[in-house]
Each structure stands twice: as C-alpha cells, then as structure tokens.
Amino acid sequence: MDGTTQELAQRWLAEDKDPKTRAQIEALVVSGDEARLKALLRAPIEFGTAGLRARMEAGYSRFNQLTVISASQGLAAYVEREVADAHERGVVVGHDHRHGSAVFARLTARAFLDRGFRVHLFPALGPTPAVPFAVKRLRAACGVMITASHNPKDDNGYKVYWENGAQIKSPVDEGIAASIAEHRVPRNWDVSGVESDPRTADVTAPMLDAYFEAARHLARDAELNRATELRYVYTPMHGVGAAFAARMLATLGLPPFVPVPEQVDPNPDFPTVAFPNPEERGALDMAKALADARGIGLVVANDPDADRFAAAEKQADGAWLTFTGDQLGAVFAAAVLDMARRDGVPDAKLAMVNSTVSSRMLATMAAKEGFFYADTLTGFKWMANELAALQARGYYVGLGYEEAIGYMVHDQVLDKDGITALGVFVQLAAALRAEGRLVGDYLEDLYAKYGYFVSANSYFVCPDPAKTARIFSRIRFGAADADGDAKDAVERTAFARPHMGDVLRYPRTIGGSPVSYIRDLTVGFEMRDVDQSPAACDLAEGQCWPRFAVSGSSHMITFETRNGARLTMRTSGTEPKLKYYLEVSNPSNDRAAAARDLDRMVQAVADELVQAAVNGL
Concatenated DSSP letters for 233-248? Predict the structure, then answer.
C-alpha cells in the first residue's frame, strides 16, 4: 500500500467515531485492499449545486457521519459570514426516511448549534418541500434537507437551500465547498442534546399547518371537490408522501385515495421497486394493476421524498396513458392560468418558468396568453432562483417545471413540490370527470389550441471521454485533416471569433431542415436566425455571448431548425452518457407530420451529429 493511501486510512481512523464505518476501513487496511481504499478515501465527496449525494459507506468520497459533520461545519461557517443576522434567523433542518437520515439531520443540527445558530428542526421524517417552505416562512438563514430523493436505497444526500428559499447555485456552492475544506476535521459527534437544546425548536406543527393553509388558494371549486365521486389509486413509492398527500387532499376537500398497500408505508429498503422513481418504466405497474382490479381509471404517484409527481389515466379505449413530464407541465400550466385569472391575477403579472430541455409548449402558451415566460438551465436550482427574482419584482409565480416530473405550483415553495402538484392534478381530474371528460381530453384541447408537441429524449453510452470530446468538437468545429484545417462534407456556417482565436463551424442543416438557432454553453455562443446570416461572418468580442452561464468543463449545445424542432445535446455529470432532448412542434396539430419530423430528427442525431455507427455507440 502506498504512503498516501496509508496516510489517508490512518487519518480516517483517527477522525471517525462511527463504529460501523471505522470497521469498514479497518477491514480494508488489514486485507491490504489498496484499490478499494483509494476509491473510498482519495477523492473527497464534492459539494455542488445539489449539495452532497453519494452511497452511504466509509470514506471521504462517500456519504457518512464524518462527511456530514464536515459539510455542516463548513456550511455553518459560510452562512455565518455571508448572511446577516444568521445566528438569530437560524437554520431549518429536515430529513426523509432513508437509513441514517435521522442521525445525519441531528449531526447537522449539532454543528449549527455549536456555531451559535438557532435550529428550526423537523425531528420526524417529512417531505422535502417542507424545508424550503419553512426557510421562506421563517426567514431562516438557510435550510438543509437530508434526502437522496429517488436514488437507490444505499444512497443519501444533503440538499441545501439559501435564505431566499431556493436551492443554492454558483458561486455560493463554491464558497461553501471552500469553507468545508477549511473546517473539515469533525469536532462534535454528540447528538444526544440536540432536541432539548433551548435554541432548538420543533417546527413541525406550525410549519405544516402554515404549509397546508397557504395551499388553500389552490382549491378551484371547493363545492365540486366535496361532491366528486372520483376514485384514484396513489403510491408514494415506499416514501414519506402518504400522510402529507392525504392531508393536502383533505385541505382541498377532495376524497381520499386508494393506496397501494405494499408501497404506502415508508420503507428505506424499497422492496417492490428496483429503482424508486415513478418516472422509470414499470414503476407504476403495481398501482395500475390495483386500479385495474378495482375498476379505477386514474393513478397518481410521488417519489420517495415527495418532491416529484407522476400520473397515468385509462383512456376511452381502455389503454393506460402515462403522462410524460412535459405533458403534465402543459396541463399544470393551463390549470394555473385558469386559477390565476379566477383570483384576479393580471396575465402580465403571472410568471411561469421551465428548464431549457423541457417543452417549448409553455413558451407558445405564454406568447398566446400574455403571461411572462422564461427558461433556465437544467436543474430546479436555476428555476427556483429565477422564480425568487420574479417574486421580488412583483410577479405571481404560478408554475416552474422540468421534464423530469418536477413541478412547483405552490408560490410559497420555491422547489419541486409533489404534494401540491398532486392536489392540483386530482382536483382538475375531478372537475373534468364531472363533465364526462378525462385529463387526456384536456391535453388534446391544449394541443388543438397551441399546436402539437412531441418529444424523444434518449442517450448514447460513451465510456470514453476522449471520444465524447471528439464528437462535440466535430459538431462545433467540423472534422480536421492532418494539417488541422477544417475539412468536412457537412455544409456549415462559419463564425470567426478573432478575440477568441477560433472559428466555429456549425452544421447548416440537421435532418434536411435549416438550422435557425444555436446556443453553445461550452464555448460561449448564441445566435438566432443563423440561416439568414452570411456563410461566414466575423464576431466582435461579446457579440452572440449567451445569457446562460458558460462552462467549459461540460458539453451542451442547443439547435433549433425551421421544421419546428429543438434539440439539446449534453454530457452527463454523473454517467458515461451523451444525452439528447429532442422536441418537434406542429402548429396545425398535424400528428402524422410531427411524427415524421421527429423520426427524421432522431435519425439525424445518430447519423449526422453523433455518427453512432462510426463511433461504435
């Protein structure tokens, strides 16, 4: 075993007071398993915009009591320095039902108490949305939720909210990471006095009461809600959602759900699902089977920490329609628009936001109806901070959503909230059933009004980072011959950037359709109507620089074409995948034409851009 690995192992054993994780490292030291020790110790777990998330086991690279204490010490020191009156305003701490979550939450609280903070604690398990709600309601300095959302059972996470109630983003995450490095050595493992400390307050009852009370304005027709005979099956996927979903439905005056018995109670082992994510293929099968057996035509679901929402509905032909994330986004947008108008919110003061890889249908709706619309980078942290800024400017923030079944319809929760999303969806379904219609019919009405939108999101597995880099280089620069000169059979438009010392050469067409828009967040380029530009042009410094953050550490390019297609290609930060998000719209609701265009564009991604066959993908 080399010296560095041995030193790290001994340092870990000197610092770690958790017998379980100490034993793991001790066993590896005795067996001399250097490769395993390196994997666990050498690359410290990274604190990013999603906080921390990793497998629960020993080591600086994993999620465990030591890394949680270090993160909490660093976070507390950073918040103390950056947020006014931080000690008095305090920190909100909550946790889900995963193995170890309750202890991790109390270790977090202990680090803040030791730093002189008040702690607003949810001592029992709860849903993720309760924490950002409490941060906003209590004007806390920050919030921490211990959860790994829908990750496998062996993972856990540390999700951080800033004083505005939104998830942290750059440069706050970098500042926290630096502070963690400065306060890395764990100081206090004692959680015995956390709840009895006079600076700790159990905020469960007052915050949940306020959360549900604040959601009452989402009731669209209380009398109709009470009268409905709608029946529906619900699953929380072995997570925390059932009790909170039931209370939300009661708050809105809706009838109770029919639970999936095997999945309704919190169970950190997730015994009936391989991957506890309702977005995964087959995840709703047990709920659908129960619905079929009971003669019920609607299924709704939350993920384990209840921040995501999914739904499926049996159509007139007897087939189940499992709504995509974008289809639900359109349904929520229309429902929110109706509720806002009912409540007297002017269209021009209503704001809705989605991520740049989500459907453009929301932008089309905004253009037609007159409400404010913006898209953001992928990840709810970007949407939440955009929504917080819009609230500060006097907008009513009605909806934020991402295609990965995350929805914010409660203006006091600046994060995904599957509990209020469920309530809004169920009452819409109840109102439609009273008219003899389905949510699927409602979606068809939206297509007829705003045009048809169909998507194909997928990925190519590419474990070779160098090959991935070559693929993206060819897309943005063209292929190069032996002399390094651009030489490519693909017709391209050249954009010389003398100040950057490069010439970008993007394809003029994709799938036979002219490229009209390009945004490249890796090299910093954005331009509309590129097909109307000369075949080659020089760009001055700052010209065509994108409004989104540019990062050279990852690849992300978006194209739009004149046939109504929008394509975003990016690398994954956690998996060896080259992902793409493709959507085709047809303003006249011509499904067949949209399907043909989509098929052609999917083929073009594989053949023209990625060259999957040539690259062995």
Answer: EEE-TTSSHHHHHHHH
pLDDT bracket for residue 275 (50, 70, 90): confident
Calculate what percentage of the chain has a pLDDT beyond 70: 98
3-class SS at 321? Answer: strand
Cβ-in-10-Å burial (0-12, 13-18, 19+) of 545 comes to exposed
Same CATH fold assignment for domains 72-150+158-202 and 205-450: yes
With beta carbons less than 8 A apart as the criterion, state whether 77 and 182 touch: yes
* Helix (H/G/I), strand (E/B), else coil: 595: helix
> Taking the model in full, what pTM does it have?
0.93
- Taking the CB of residue 182, how many other CB atoms lie within 10 A of it? 11
Residue type present at position 23: A
CA distance 414 to 391: 10
CB 576 within 8 A of CB 454: no
| Cα separation, 20 vs 293, whole angstroms | 45
SS3 438: coil
Residue 376 pairs in a beta bridge with 355
Say yes or no to pLDDT of 484 above 50: no
At residue 483, the pLDDT reads 47
How many helices, marked H, and strands, marked E, lie in the chain? 20, 25
Catalytic residues: 149
Determine the CATH number of domain 72-150+158-202. 3.40.120.10
CATH topology of domain 205-450: Alpha-D-Glucose-1,6-Bisphosphate; Chain A, domain 3 (3.40.120)
**pLDDT at site 46:** 86
Residue 581: pLDDT band (50, 70, 90) is very high
Structure tokens of 474? 């060819």
The residue that leads in pLDDT, 490 or 472, is 472
Give the single-character DSSP code of 122.
Answer: -
- Evaluate if residue 470 carries a pLDDT over 90: yes
Q: Over the stretch 317-358, which tens digit does the pLDDT of each residue have?
A: 999 999 999 999 999 999 999 999 999 999 999 999 999 999
Distance CA 302, CA 415 (A): 15
DSSP state of 530: G
Domain ranges of the chain: 72-150+158-202, 205-450, 455-615
At what angle are helices 439-450 and 361-369 packed, to 10 degrees?
70
Instruction: Name 406's bridge partners.
Output: 308, 402
Which three-class secondary structure state does DSSP give residue 221?
A: coil
Average pLDDT over residues 466-481: 88
Cβ contact 226:110 at 8 Å:
no
